Amino acid sequence: MAAEKIRINPDNVNASEIDRVVSILKNGGVIVYPTDTVYGIGCDITNKKAVERVARLKGVKAKEAKFAMIFHDLSHLSEYTKPLDNTTFRLMKKALPGPFTFILEANNQVPKIFANKKKEVGIRIPDHEIPREIVRVLGNPIVTTSVHDDDEIVEYTTDPDDVYEQFKDLVDAVVDGGFGNNIPSTIVDCTGDELEIIRQGLGQLEELN
């Protein structure tokens, strides 16, 4: 059965449409959805079977996957990460919501969810109402990993119709939030003595100073 296509206007998010997406996630579904950067594949982080499905879509084992989590805001970070130093917290407060993924030290809750011995976890709070509202209504983070294109020139699929064609037989729903970006988030590793940019993407750290 083909995936459901759910159109949501990012400038006027409809609560009933968000509720439909959340219902799919609560039932163990996997979705594709827009962010402030590229489209992502995700599921409820507390559903082990759904996490394993996302891993299979990426061609990796769940215990080896390096997924990030999408949060609504910074208030629930302490449930999944070790305490942050003041410098890192201030930086994240400036940068988020925004096109960054921050790598932080994970606490003991994360291994239970991902069924592995992860010591680090990626945190995303996108500057986009749709994924943040999904997470807020769901009540916990969702797994996120970028939608890649098989085209050698175009790395990320941006057209929601193309995204749907690519994933309609692989996921339970595709959230159409309009055209996506083709530049991913900037990944910042905060686990060492100094910040390290692992991947330069849309977010510009120097603009935060």
Largest beta sheet: strand ordering: 1-8-2-3-7-4-6-5-9-10
CATH-assigned fold name: DHBP synthase
Assign the structural class, choosing from mainly alpha, mainly beta, alpha/beta, alpha+beta, or little secondary structure: alpha/beta
Mean pLDDT, nearest integer?
90
- Which value, in Å, is the CA radius of gyration? 16 Å
The N- and C-terminal alpha carbons lie at a distance of 49 Å
**CATH top level assignment:** Alpha Beta
Largest sheet: 10 strands, mixed
Overview of this structure, please?
The chain has a single domain, classed as DHBP synthase (Alpha-Beta Complex), CATH 3.90.870. With 209 residues, the protein is an alpha/beta fold. It has six helices and ten strands. The N and C termini lie far apart (49 Å).
List the SSEs and their pairings:
Blueprint: E1 4-7, H1 15-26, E2 30-33, E3 40-43, H2 48-58, E4 68-70, H3 86-95, E5 100-105, H4 109-114, E6 120-124, H5 129-138, E7 142-146, H6 160-167, E8 173-176, E9 186-189, E10 196-199
Parallel strand pairs: 1-8, 2-8, 4-6, 5-9
Antiparallel strand pairs: 2-3, 3-7, 4-7, 5-6, 9-10
Helix pairs in contact: 1-5
